[in-house]
Amino acid sequence: MRYFAVFFFFLLSSAAIAQDSKISATVINDLTLLPMADVSIININKVKGTTSNASGYFEIPAEVNDTLHISTLGYKSIKVRVTNDWVKTKSTKIRMTEKAYALEEVVINQYNLTGYLEIDYKIIPIKENYRYSISGLTSGYEAGEYSPNAFSRVMGSIFNPADMLYNFFGKKPTELKRLKEMKKDDAVKNLLASKFDRETLGALLGVTSTEISEILERCNYSESFIKTANDLQIMDAINDCYEEYKILKGKK
Description:
It is built from eleven helices and nine strands. By secondary structure, it is of the alpha+beta class. β2 and β3 form a beta hairpin. The two termini are 43 Å apart.
């Protein structure tokens, strides 16, 4: 009985250590070797996030084979696999490389404005987006600009059995479960709220930015929303669509 108690205590201690396992690292500029502050680090496997401090240092819960997504404005994002050596030494240095930007030509459309709001608002084109409410669902569907077949497009997209939503959501249930986990971590939410490139969200869900746009189109979100929403809003939109998909497919 005594040996059993010791063995049981050993198992509990091992489990506690595994749950509390953390690694640390210092992020530096690959060229200057100076520390980098406010770099975002997300453990994709555990959906936990943090940022580096003024010395470039960070700590994050992680185990062997977890993947960290590391990103910051103006630098190439990288993915780093956690190794046994890293877990044992607890700390390492991560180098980030600056992006090389090529400025593109910007075309500005000119409108002959008068300065009078009552007249100018008629000159500048305004796109309107419409959402349709469907009985049994908690939220509406955005169908873009008004047109005679807008509603039929909404319904066709939802109930088409060969729809891309079925193919996507049916094949990625594990990745989509991370959507709920993302909402529990403030560091992850704050990072997504500050991003508009779909890169981090795509890394967490295991999809490309193009696939994210296609998903939202099939969920009948307007083009303007897809282009202008931040990654946190996009995450909520995909989550809502996934929940509605489960209702329509009778899934739990």
